[in-house]
Amino acid sequence: MSAQHEAGMATTRRVVILGAGYAGVSAAIQLAARIGRREDVQVTLVNAQERFTERLRLHMTATGQQLAELSIPELLEGTGAQFVRGWVTAVDADAKTVRIDDDRVLHYDTLVYGLGSVADTAAVPGVEDHTYTLNSAQDAEVLADRLARLGSGTVVVGGSGLTGVESAAEIAERYPELTVVLLGRGEPGAAMNPKARAYLQAALDRLGVQVRSGVEVVKVLPDAVELAGGESIAADAVLWTTGTRMSPLAAAAGLTVDDRGRIVTDAALRSVSHPEVYAVGDAAAIRQGYGVMHGTCQGGMPTGVHAAISIARALKGKEPKPFRFGYYHTPVSLGRHDAVVQFTHPDDSPRRIYLTGSMAARYKEAVTASPWPTYGRMKKMPASGAFWPRGGRFTRIRGAR
Asked: pTM, whole model, 2 decimals?
């Protein structure tokens, strides 16, 4: 290798992005599009599989519905960004390295950490061994196979949050011969305004979903779930949707994390302990005026875009700008032809406005289908991905610029 080539390699800025979820793919496409084909910048996206996981549709996969095969390498074609398939097994924030599959090492100058959350199967005894999850398309397909073979019986959905509600509704509609029981500490749709919540609950009733609120699962057995107080509910299959946990890699790398394992960031989405590391999506603890953001697609994609814009600014010697984001809706599907969409204030509190029925179902489908074409547009027009609600006074942090 010539000395001139070695010098060129030494000055290449290596940007490695971990995780090709909604946020990670946004970061990769946005950054590659903004820097063009600069030879002094190398963008690498790392993910465990080539297929893009539409997390917003996993409850459909779980009921045997065929979805499009979306290829991450094909999406990156023409951008100059590289794709590396493999599991991230370690991050060394001091050495600035990432270990892939225990046998490959990638060096970085800037890291975008987007290894998001999975269902917390460790908190309750038996969950790890006896439940299904929607952590990946493969996990959802395993559940789909089980449901298709049941014929009759009881499916328990643990967790009355939005994922639990959508899953229970989808299973009940797809398999009306099954008894679907939705268990949770909270009331389904608890964060919605009363009328929207009432519509959601009526839809679950219509589908035959048996809702048990105010209960806590304390143990899962091969054929039942046990509740606090001693009650047992027979179950032929249990889907676990309650609670999430983060990958331990960030904490193990020495990055400052919160009590949930999320990387604590500054206003520009940089790690407060290692500013060459950006955290995006639900891997990040991002503080806004209303509090710390919770992980959703609507917030995840903007974090990825903002991280890319910040890195592009830094490459030009400019300081990154603060990230601000305000929520604007909560769409919940209730089977294929029904839904409820709760419009929200920027702090995610419910407005009086909401949609229901077929119009809401079309709205939800438009939202669910939007990320992939959005990535395609960003390849050609990166600025098209940089529009989202900033949230006004709701997101402003006192004392911040």
From this structure: 0.94
